[in-house]
């Protein structure tokens, strides 16, 4: 999910839900970065999100995060269980001025559940998420906002992370899967098999690659770290989506076609020329691997390996985390990704991990066993800041409602 769109989503949520006018003025100076937080950019819109992605990525590749990094994330929680994107004064109780959102809350749940030892916090967060579920079964970015594919999908991941069955979490008799099915495009016409972010004002659905990548993972009941499975031999064809699983595979078919021409997805910002969307390309790789079609994402992964260095440097911890997750999904070496050690680069954006990176251990092992020729393969795992139109992928929410593949 795109960095710029995450910012727009947060601003839109404030305006729409709270009725607050958002003045078009220059942003205030960035606050000092709290000890324990990953990254150096203003965390106002994405602090909890980027922290959650960073911790998930570290956990996935066997790095034990620093205790203060985990404590920072846990300390951002409000008493009612929700999380805001960032609370500069975490010691002060949340009040009406603190704008909480479903995405930050669901991402934090996934990270804290993966790390373990935070059952009380994740339980309170999930209770809050259930309390703001919409009548169509889905969630919007802000409580009370219209359901969208990205927000609904990240909440599904949170439910799964704590052992809930998303299909049984209902409001008005509808589950989050029902909400996603309503956002799935039919198999005829433009964007066949894709997901829309939200219907437009006339109720029409438009294919959105960002939303599709998120919804493929969500419809399969998985979270931000995905769950890569062995590639299947099933030919990807679009069929009537009467089940979440079929909708997910329809979405995967759409992503394969969207990636086919250039090996990457493309994003167009107002007034700018189309350009590669690195983050959403990584999300598409993750989605295809989770759907059992990772073999069809290998070219996109190779493209990211060759072209994503500058983007990742600008995107910081969230970008490095996304690349780690996507690379692991495709069994690319996260310690030698286009000549870069993604894990060390991610680690360097925050407090020193509590355990050495796996790459350090491997170097020591190789020094002791020089004749060992066995290869090592590692396995798998949505900020604000206008980065010249460069996307940060599964960073949420919206997100232009018409995204070009």
TrEMBL record:
<dbReference type="InterPro" id="IPR008930">
    <property type="entry name" value="Terpenoid_cyclase/PrenylTrfase"/>
</dbReference>
<dbReference type="InterPro" id="IPR001330">
    <property type="entry name" value="Prenyltrans"/>
</dbReference>
<feature type="compositionally biased region" description="Basic and acidic residues">
    <location>
        <begin position="360"/>
        <end position="372"/>
    </location>
</feature>
<keyword id="KW-0732">Signal</keyword>
<feature type="signal peptide">
    <location>
        <begin position="1"/>
        <end position="26"/>
    </location>
</feature>
<dbReference type="Pfam" id="PF00432">
    <property type="entry name" value="Prenyltrans"/>
</dbReference>
<feature type="transmembrane region" description="Helical">
    <location>
        <begin position="378"/>
        <end position="396"/>
    </location>
</feature>
<keyword id="KW-0812">Transmembrane</keyword>
<keyword id="KW-0472">Membrane</keyword>
<keyword id="KW-1133">Transmembrane helix</keyword>
<feature type="domain" description="Prenyltransferase alpha-alpha toroid">
    <location>
        <begin position="52"/>
        <end position="164"/>
    </location>
</feature>
<feature type="region of interest" description="Disordered">
    <location>
        <begin position="348"/>
        <end position="372"/>
    </location>
</feature>
<protein>
    <submittedName>
        <fullName>Terpene cyclase/mutase family protein</fullName>
    </submittedName>
</protein>
<keyword id="KW-0677">Repeat</keyword>
């Amino acid at each position: 999910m795109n960095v710029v769109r995450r910012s727009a989503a947060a601003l839109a949520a404030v305006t729409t839900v709270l009725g607050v006018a958002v003045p078009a003025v220059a942003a205030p100076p960035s606050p000092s970065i709290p000890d324990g937080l990953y990254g150096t950019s203003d965390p106002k819109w994405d602090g909890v999100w980027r922290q959650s992605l960073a911790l998930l990525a570290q956990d996935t590749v066997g790095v034990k995060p620093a205790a203060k990094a985990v404590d920072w994330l846990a300390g951002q929680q409000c008493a009612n269980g929700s999380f805001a994107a960032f609370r500069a004064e975490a010691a002060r109780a949340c009040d009406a001025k603190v704008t909480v959102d479903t995405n930050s809350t669901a991402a934090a749940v996934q990270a804290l559940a993966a790390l373990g030892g935070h059952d009380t916090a994740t339980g309170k967060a999930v209770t809050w998420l259930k309390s703001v579920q919409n009548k169509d079964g889905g969630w919007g970015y802000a409580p009370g906002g219209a359901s969208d594919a990205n927000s609904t999908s990240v909440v599904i991941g949170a439910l799964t992370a704590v052992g809930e069955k998303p299909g049984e979490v209902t409001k008005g008799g509808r589950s989050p899967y029902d909400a996603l099915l309503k956002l799935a495009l039919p198999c005829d016409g433009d964007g066949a098999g894709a997901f829309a972010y939200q219907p437009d004002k006339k109720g029409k659905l438009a294919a959105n690659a960002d939303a599709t990548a998120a919804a493929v993972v969500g419809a399969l009941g998985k979270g931000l770290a995905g769950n890569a499975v062995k590639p299947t031999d099933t030919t990807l064809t679009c069929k009537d989506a009467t089940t979440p699983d079929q909708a997910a595979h329809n979405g995967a078919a759409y992503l394969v076609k969207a990636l086919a021409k250039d090996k990457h997805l493309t994003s167009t910002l107002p007034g700018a020329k189309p350009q590669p969307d690195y983050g959403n390309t990584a999300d598409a790789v993750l989605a295809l691997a989770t759907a059992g079609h990772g073999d069809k994402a290998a070219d996109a992964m190779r493209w990211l390996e060759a072209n994503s260095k500058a983007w990742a440097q600008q995107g910081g911890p969230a970008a490095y985390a996304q690349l780690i997750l996507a690379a692991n999904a495709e069994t690319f070496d996260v310690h030698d990704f286009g000549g870069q050690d993604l894990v060390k680069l991610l680690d360097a954006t925050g407090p020193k991990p509590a355990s050495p990176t796996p790459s350090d251990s491997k170097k020591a092992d190789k020094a002791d066993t020089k004749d060992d020729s066995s290869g090592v393969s590692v396995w798998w795992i949505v900020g604000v800041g206008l980065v010249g139109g460069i996307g940060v992928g599964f960073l949420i929410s919206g997100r232009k409602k018409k995204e070009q593949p």
